[in-house]
Amino acid sequence: MSESTSESTAASKDDAMSRSGVAMSRRRLLGTAAAGAGASLLGMSVKGEEALPADPTRVPGRPPSALGDRSPFETVERKPVFGVVSLTPLERLHGTITPADLHFERHHAGIPALDPDRHELVLHGMVDKPLAFSLADLKRFPSVTRTCFIECSGNYFPTAGELSPPHLVCGLTSQSEWTGVPLATLLREAGVKAGASWILAEGSDAAVMSRSIPLEKALDDALIVYAQNGEA
User: What is the mean pLDDT of the chain?
Assistant: First the structure.
């Protein structure tokens, strides 16, 4: 074998080893990447549409947002029944405040869609001067915030047994922090005439629901509220 042939053979062996090394490196790299991806997938749990890291101390969390949301593990919701009510899931709440979107509902003609820029509260009848208050007008008065519960007069389900969950026994009860203006303040603005003894509160829903309230109660602790749990 000539010297040139030996050199050529050696070069071919070197090239083959080099190519083999590159191939091995590529396979090792791909294998490592696949293993890393597998480990990454194994280290994540998925709840809904959100992937949750196994160790949140090693992964930066989400950035600030314009609007928060519930924990992806929180699945509590109201229980709509009979087509006219939604029951508060009392047994699944924490503390004494009912979240606004879990407050019970009772409707006679659905939920009215009211434009806060057009809606008015009108006081008329046995008053010295009939008045109409916009939402902006109401917010100019000194506000009062109280924690109060509301119970529907129909908060009784005779078919619920002793072992029924609370929402089936008394789910038409909820408690919130309410902010607004005392009704007594507005009545003083309008001036109540002598002889007046009752107020007829009439709603702006499609059923035009109304309820009678003793004037004594209206002057005591009744509120015209525009905020629930800190929001409109």
Answer: 83
- Per-residue model confidence (pLDDT) at position 49: 54
- Phi/psi for 51 (5° steps) reads -85, 130
Q: Which residue, among 180, 183, 182, 152, has the nearest Cα to 167 in the 3D structure?
A: 152
Q: Could you give the CA distance from residue 124 to residue 230 in angstroms, rounded to a whole number? A: 30
What is each CA distance from 212 to 94, 200, 217, in whole angstroms?
Answer: 34, 5, 11
CA angle at 176 for the pair 171 and 178, rounded to the nearest 5°: 140
Q: How far apart are the first and last CA of the chain?
A: 96
Give the C-alpha separation, 105 to 171, whole Å.
10
The dihedrals phi and psi of 151, each to the nearest 5 degrees, come to -125, 130
In DSSP terms, which residues pair with 47 in a beta bridge?
50
Distant-in-sequence, close-in-space partners of 218: CB < 8 Å, separation ≥ 6: 183, 184, 187, 199
pLDDT for residue 92: 94
Structure tokens at 151: 């119970």
Burial 136-149 (b: 16+ CB within 10 A, else e): eebeeeeeeeeeee
**Closest listed residue to residue 160, CA positions, set 168, 150, 170:** 168
> What residue type is assigned to position 101 of the chain?
D
pLDDT(159) > 90: no
Separation CA 224–CA 232 (nearest Å): 13
The mean pLDDT of 139-168, rounded to a whole number, is: 87
**How many Å apart are CA 168 and CA 158, to the nearest integer?**
10
Chain centre distance of CA 104: 14
DSSP designation for 192: B
